[in-house]
Each structure stands twice: as structure tokens, then as C-alpha cells.
Input
Amino acid sequence: MANSKRDLFRTRRMRVRSKLRKTSNGRPRLSVHRSSKNISVQLIDDVQGVTLASASSLEKELGIVGKNNVEAAAKIGAAIAERARKAGIEEVYFDRGGFLFHGKVKALADAAREGGLKF
Output
């Protein structure tokens, strides 16, 4: 039976997420979503099921609306690190979803680390 690209992506995303949950120790999850036009990130508390902070390329105050490149991803990573500090969060675990850890996802992660998040 042939799986669609979407099914393969969902399988990969759930495999990554289940492995991370085993080692999370109650830390919030830094979840990344990348589409063809935008990139967004959320800090999620899985215990309570709430979003603690978020950042997206759709936000006008970041000045990157409509841009989906490595520089935009780095700005989003810096923004989420700043918002996490304001929320009192220092340690998270990085959930890349089904995306490979290179390009925009890596740039976002590196900028978040430089901003003070530990993962």
C-alpha cells in the first residue's frame, strides 16, 4: 500500500514527538511548523495543554511578513527566545515535527539558543 507524502510526514512527526515526550521531564515543547509561505513556532505546555508563547512570520511587528527564508526564521527564533524569557521559561525541548533539522528549522533553533533558550 502506497503512503502519501502527508501520511509519511504525520508518521515522522509522531515518531519524533513520542521520543521527545519520554525525555521531556515536564519542560515546555518548542514546536516548529513550516509551510511553503510562512514559518511559526509555539511554546506549548503539554501537561496543561496551553500555548505559553508564539511567534510567526505573519506578525507585522517582526517586519518579515511574506518572507520565508533563513533570515526570517532567525528573527522568529530570536523573538520566541525573548518571549520565553518574559514568560519565565529557560529550558525547553525542541520539537522539529516532521521537518529535517537544516535550513530554516536549524536557523530558528540556533537563534533561539543564542537568545537564551536551552535545549
In short: The longest strand covers residues 39-45.
